[in-house]
Amino acid sequence: MQANIQAEILNIGDELLNGQVLNTNASAIATMLNRIGVKVAEILTIGDDAQAIEQSFAEGLKKYQLLIVTGGLGTTKDDITKKSICNYFHVGLKDNLQMKQHIKEVVKALNRKVSDSVFTQSMLPENCKVILNPYGIAPGMWMEQGNAVLISIPGVPMEMESMLDEIEQKVVAHFHIASTIDMHFKTYGIAESALSDLLDDYENQLPSYIKLAYLPQMGIVNLRLTGHHADAKMLAKEMNCRREKLLEIAGEYVFSEENKPLSLLIGDALKAKGQTMATAESCTGGLIVHQMTSNPGSSLYVKGGVVAYSNEIKTKVLHVDEQILTTVGAVSEQTVLSMAANVLKLYNVDYSLSVSGIAGPDGGTAEKPVGTVWIAVANKEKAEAKCFHFGRGRKNVVERTVQTALYLIYKLIQES
Fold it and tell me: CATH second-level architecture of 262-415?
């Protein structure tokens, strides 16, 4: 078993440096490495410059046991990483039969004419082991130099992410990494700082091989308890003890121990009950139903949603009484309760939620400042509404509204 494995993530591409493309790859790779106990010591972004790339290879493999490189792979002239690998390792290109067969299968599945240049992707450095790309033809490549490993993968996020599971398995096996256990706790109703104070003594008493991480997300704080140790049985026993202690201290705020987004937790709960939901949204503009329907299979439990941004739609589609809107306004308890009750009937579902608020930057008053949001959730037995003040910043208000509304309907489903 090797301990204290350190890694560097090297991102290649002019488009990353000039801001054309957001570098999400580094985050995804770092998350994977952290999960298996590999410390990311450095993240570096460089342009499409062969000399800089080869120099980065030399420096990275000298300092760290693992160097993961993304970008610079493809059928166009910016396919610079493969050439740099050959130059650095002093090897030539060789036609890889495994890769050639993979390309043929991808081309056949496309059922259309493609350029012959795609088959240049089967020409790989002589010293590499192939990591196949489930969603493309740019290969993943594994090269070893002494005790260090260089892994090169495509920069297209979907392709890169599809290869991470295999890379994780190979890294764990190659470096004989110790057992790793992750436990997750989703909390609501307590700020990150207050939760940290509550768990201060608990965290100070953790052994060196167990760490607690705080991952806040718009009103929800995710806790991750991670343990790394060579003795798998001992680690499992210790982690279970630490889990029970954490729940003793902060259990009243923990609403899930699954590492899933709220939209998936809701979907799982509805599928288990064979039930459905719908939404009525004003200030969120359909983002809630969008999050719900982004999940595969969501048609089983999401019937639809109404984006009632204007009062006209609130009255004509959701049948909110005009008197409510003229007396107490669109951002009110009565309005969201009416929206939730009527969308429940409109779609004939088991659960509904509704939101109406002032996202800003304009539209606030002394009584209802920017950030004021009413949220209602309902089923056929009961309905409840709550008022929240999410502060300023339009994006902040909208995102916190989405997360809070999802939490409230999840809680109602769990309690029903």
Answer: Alpha-Beta Complex (3.90)
